[in-house]
Amino acid sequence: MKMMKMSLPLAGLMMVAAPFAAAQQINAAGATFPAVIYQKWFDEYHKMHADVQINYQSIGSGGGIAQLTAGTVEFGASDMPMTDEQISKLSVKPLHFPSVLGGVVPTYNIAGITQELKFTSETLSGIFLGTIAKWDDPRLAKDNPGVKFPKADIQVVHRSDGSGTTFVWTDYLSKVNPDWKSKVGANTSVNWPVGLGGKGNEGVAGTVKQTPNSIGYVELIYAVQNKMAYGSVKNASGNFVKADFNSVTEAAAAAAKNIPDDFRVSITNAAGKNAYPISTFTWLLIPSHIPDAAKATTIKAFLQWMLADGQKYAAGLSYASLPKEVIAKEAKQIAKIQ
Amino acid sequence: MMRGNLTWRKSVNAVMLSVTAIFTVLAVSTLFLILGYLVYYGGRSLDWNFFTKLPLPPGEIGGGMANAIVGSLEIVGVAALIGLPFGFLAGIYLSEFEDKMFCPLVRYVADLLNGIPSIVVGLLAWTLVVVPTRSFSGLAGSIALAAMLIPIVTRQTEQFLREVPLSLREAALALGASKWKTIATVVVPAGSKGILTGMILGIARIAGESAPLLFTAFNNQFWGGGITQPTASLPVMIYSHAIAPYDDWHRQAWAAGLVLIGMVLIANIAARLVLARGISVPRA
Amino acid sequence: MATPAVADTTATRRQTTQTGDIAARLITLAFAASIILITLLLVWQLWSQSAPTRHKFGLAFLFSSTWNPVTEEFGALPFVYGTVVTSVLALLISVPLGLGSAIFLAELAPAGISNTLTFLIELLAAIPSVIYGLLALFTLVPLMRDYGEPFLKSTLGFLPLFKGPVYGFGLLTGGMVLSIMTIPFIISVSREALLAVPREQREAALALGATRWESTWQIVVPYAKLGILGSIFLGLARALGETMAVTMVIGNDPKIVASLFAPGYSIAAVIANEFSEATGRVYQSALIELGLVLFLLTIIINGFARLMILATTKKGSKR
């Protein structure tokens, strides 16, 4: 009697779900860094192809690689290229497809400060190592004359999950600061000396936004969309550069010409007068063999769209579009997906 | 001297009465604070979009959680489909067919199952369902929730069947009814109010669970392909939206919180009214 | 004397009755037994899936405070610390409040008010964890960061417990959220334990001239102390396993620091945050082993709780 009462609503729900079952569901997961533009892309793609639903969940680069390895998602996404060891764990070799360029910015929420702050590799390492513990530290004042810093503790916010954004940030700090390299190193997950952990770029941005006198590192769009202040960083040429379309593009320019065949490259601390030093490619991790032929076709079609029309969305969302050379090379890699 | 002592004792009495009363008021007022916040912030944020639209890409305003509402209903519905009959029949066994060794064992194990933290249940559903099927699915989430529902329903069913007076059973048996007929037509209907209460409370409990769904049902930006695919749910959406930086997402989290708490509270109040007498919180 | 025909129908009716009974028994038995099977399956999974880290680290896992997914060194100590600290904090707040309320509701308040208020308090137990987290994130964290923790720092800042930067997120806030979540359990079960104390006890005390408070505090409460203790263990077991509310406010940092203002991590929170990204068998099994540790902790505490509550009911029925 009770079972019958339950099965009627269920039948109703199944009927609701059935039409959607005809739609093609492709599941993906990974980096939060590009999540803003990915969600935009998949949303737009769905509007153009109503039967295709690419469900992307931003769980962090570590999550993308883990779920791809477990086989629970069709493709993954990461801001740190997969290591050889990670690749060896997959039964099907993954192909790296750079999707877009972006910059990791130091975003802060300091009482009374609306102007843009200047950071150097020393001050950034110091803050995240905990050696610069207060905002009114002279080392910060040196680079920011005229700024009235409060006498407050610096609340550091970092990632709690395995993050490609963390990799980019720590990769940069490791390149410019041997002290950082030996103490913390560069990876998706590091032993942070100080600070709160936020989950995803979203969590870090959310925490910084809520916590006075805090500083964190996020992809540019998260600071822009939430009207959060972010600083400029001194690059290898000695200029203080703020992350934007041009400075990020310039950071990729040199690497673009000589990008390796598997597209795994780091562009942090790039040469270039106005290159933003904490820039990165971000990759979609597509298996080289996709058993479901229909899904393979859809994914390949999406990739082609991404390399063409998709790139047009980058500027509006504070990312940078891929260099032409990279796009051309990637188009050839699409053919490698069986 | 006696009088002085008495005055002191009387004042202690009065003070402690007030202190404990204040403690009680504090405890109860947290409930009203919580409800107040939810009604205020959630009420402002509820709009037609929330119930009808899908989530929009981050930063865009005007999205909703239509898929999460339906997803929650699907996941909890299937969990109920699995868990309710299970717990119901197991409860009947414990109450009606007494077995000296076996029944205490089942009760103990049911309590064990009840005590497994919900995140661990989700973990295990991942290893047992998601990995072999190589897919996140609402069904995996339902299985995790069903595992939490079963001990609750079992205990409640047993408890209320036991409260049915022996005389009713004996009367039925004396009239020639078999044991199973007695159970089906006399005992269960007699205890049905309480059993129904237990079921409603159990469902309300699992409907609010978020942790077991994190790695089972995962989440979905779209309507999805049904329960065998990743499915959005209200609790998981609340979590992901609350920790994000977007004000619009916070707004939606409050709205979702209000909807969720509304459903849970209505279920709880309805269940207790059905029972029409105070019962204790189900032993955790 | 029955004719063969009538005798036949009686026999067949008895047979169908017996088959029906046997079938009912078997079916319901199957479901009851399945509960044991399910639980065994889950526990076996917990045990077997955590094998890689159990073999690699052995008991040292429980005492190591390194958590490094990259070098695959894992230790449970920071999480056990965070779990225990937040739970103990929760109890420190909720036990006095809860017991006081239970005493009021059971002994000192008129029956009608008592029942209504108890009903309302039990509704608190029905509120989902993620909603507690939502509220704590947007109301408690700013409150603690802007008022609560600075106040504690200025008054009790000489203690290592209240030193260090004030985030709002952290062990203290985690403990406070948990306290609100455990109060309904303590109130509900303690109240029942107090109500179960025989009337004669109270009446005897009052007859001897005790005030209501004295009769309650000196006679009734000690009589019910096992049940009250049981309620505390029950609340503790609940607090240990809480996930969502804790992970949203605890700060998510696997460190062991003396200060309560510091961000910490609990077992449930780290599983929730890191499981979906755990690559490699060792990482995964480390998290599953943490789940095993949590499970064992909750079983032990729950076991104590039930023993106490059982002892109380036996004691009550003795009279």
Structure overview:
- The complex is a heterotrimer of chains A (338), B (284) and C (319).
- Chain A is an alpha/beta fold and 338 residues long.
- Helices cover 43% and strands 20% of the residues of chain A.
- In chain A, strands 1, 2, 3, 4, 6, 7, 8, 9 and 12 form a nine-stranded mixed β-sheet that branches. Chain A has a three-stranded mixed β-sheet with strand order 5-10-11.
- In chain A, helix 12 (293-310) runs antiparallel to helix 14.
- Chain B has one domain (50-276): MetI-like fold, CATH 1.10.3720.10.
- Mean pLDDT of chain B is 89; it is low at 278-284.
- Chain B has helices at 2-45, 48-52, 66-96, 102-115, 118-133, 138-162, 166-174, 179-207, 234-242, 247-275.
- Chain B has ten helices and no strands.
- Chain B has 284 residues and is an all-alpha fold.
- Chain C has two domains: 2-38; 56-315, MetI-like (MetI-like fold).
- Chain C is 78% helix and 1% strand.
- In chain C, strands 1-2 form a two-stranded antiparallel sheet.
- Chain C starts with a helix and ends with a helix.
- Classes of the chains: A alpha/beta (338), B mainly alpha (284), C mainly alpha (319).
- At the B-C interface, helix 1, helix 3, helix 4, helix 5 and helix 6 of B face helix 1, helix 4, helix 5, helix 6 and helix 7 of C.
Q: What's the quick description here?
A:
The complex is a heterotrimer of chains A (338), B (284) and C (319). With 338 residues, chain A is α/β, with parallel strands linked by helices.
Count of extended strands of chain B: 0
Percent strand of chain B equals under 5%
Multimerization status: heterotrimer
The level-1 CATH class of chain B: Mainly Alpha
Q: Structural class, judged by helices and strands of chain B? A: mainly alpha
Q: Which regions of chain A are unreliable across 5 or more consecutive residues at pLDDT < 50?
A: none
* Element string of chain A (H = helix, E = strand): HEHEHEHEEHHEHHEHEHEEEHEHHH
Element-by-element helix/strand order of chain B: HHHHHHHHHH
Question: What overall geometry of chain A do the principal axes of the alpha carbons give?
Answer: elongated
Would you report the number of β strands of chain A?
Answer: 12
Distance between the termini of chain A: 51 Å
The helix tally of chain B amounts to: 10
Average pLDDT number of chain A = 90
- Fraction of residues of chain B in helices? over 70%
CATH architecture of chain B: Orthogonal Bundle
Largest sheet of chain A: 9 strands, mixed
